[in-house]
Amino acid sequence: MKIHTAEKPHTCDQCGKSFPQKRNLDEHKKIHTLEKPYTCDQCGTSFPFKGNLDAHKRIHTGEKPHKCDHCGKNFAQKGNLNVHMKLHTGEKLYTYQCLKSFTQVPFNDQVKIHTAEKPLNCDQCGKSFSQKGNLNEHMKIHTGERPFACDQCEKRFTHKGNLNEHMKIHTGEKPYACDQCGKSFAHKTNLNDHMTIHTGEKPHTCAQCGKSYARKGALNDHMKIHTGENLHICDQCGKSFRKSGVFKVHLLTHSRERLHNCDQCGKSFFRADFLKDHLKVHTKEKPYVCSLCGKSFRQTSALKIHQKRHSGVKDHACSECGKSFFTDGALKVHQSVHTRETPYKCSHCDKSFKRSEYLRIHERIHTGEKPYHCHSCGMSFTHLSSLNRHKKKCMSEITSSSSSSDL
């Protein structure tokens, strides 16, 4: 009867809020005690109320039980459906000094935009926020919560939007196409960067010397010349890198296990798809055929690079001098002309090289490795060119010996 009579005899001694039933008060008190007894078995996030947990679980299941009768759109939360319904009714109850109208109570958040009020503070780092939702999103940085998991590679993300962007790696989706050369990109920002190749635009200018660059990253790299900022140095092997992205890729060689082994030659790989590509070396399989000249390739990436030679598209441009190249690898080799950087250092001596393959060849001097074998006589060589020279001599001797025996 208390529900109907509006009698609320159970009062919270922390904030004074009253409830009709004791169980309602007990649930409410969890807000003050920070008790979170309901834990998600998918990602470990805890909640004070079972209703919160049930709503959270829909992130993982994708369940959207609340359906709009007008347009059929589904929602995970009833509150989100209620807000959506106002689009159909045209209801906008809240207006402020900018004359913008709002359909939902978080109109108060809009007021804070005008007042610059940020009453919500992070108890971990002190950063302030105007909205509770923004604070909750920020807290994931400290808690490490990543509720959105990729079902292809199990990588986890803090936000659904980040997962959606990541999924393009697996689906191969590249919805952003260049109207100049037809090259497609997964992300709009990548297309914008690419377009500067065609426009010649260099909006990022160095305040120290006035030099301009097409990409912000290129300017950041250039600034290290003025600041004297240290290179990224690997504490495992001592190699140094100017770019953080290249450095991070290098670190994987130390930290990640190579679980995927080739049963033909024993070579190991970080990922199964790398092994799959490698196996084509042994099977001689070349399934990707150029429609213009009929040449075949083991990898689709190699075919795409080859096709650029037919079309003449050189979409990798040097930010220093504007020279263009078919591949990113060729561009990186060229850029060392400007930087004189030799990041690949020999672990046996003080020599360093511009390219990793030059270092590998050099290190054979120290290791004694001779990977190139003559199948006719069994001799081994450090360099492929040495093997090729030997083969001519070896075949000549075999032919001469065969002719002598015939006599």
How would you explain this protein's 3D organization?
The protein is of the alpha+beta class and 407 residues long. The radius of gyration is 32 Å and the shape is elongated. 44% of the residues lie in helices and 14% in strands. Strand 21 and strand 22 (296-297) form a beta hairpin. It has 15 helices and 28 strands.
Helix-residue proportion: 40-55%
User: How are strands sequenced across the largest beta sheet?
Assistant: 1-2
List the uncertain runs.
Answer: 92-97, 99-108
Figure out the total of helices: 15
Structural class: alpha+beta
Distance between the termini: 121 Å
Mean pLDDT: 76
- What's the Cα radius of gyration? 32 Å
Strand content: 5-15%
Please outline the major beta sheet. 2 strands, antiparallel
Count of extended strands? 28
Assign an overall shape: elongated
Main location: nucleus
GO biological process, one term: positive regulation of DNA-templated transcription
Keywords: DNA-binding, Metal-binding, Nucleus, Repeat, Transcription, Transcription regulation, Zinc, Zinc-finger
Pfam family, one: zf-H2C2_2
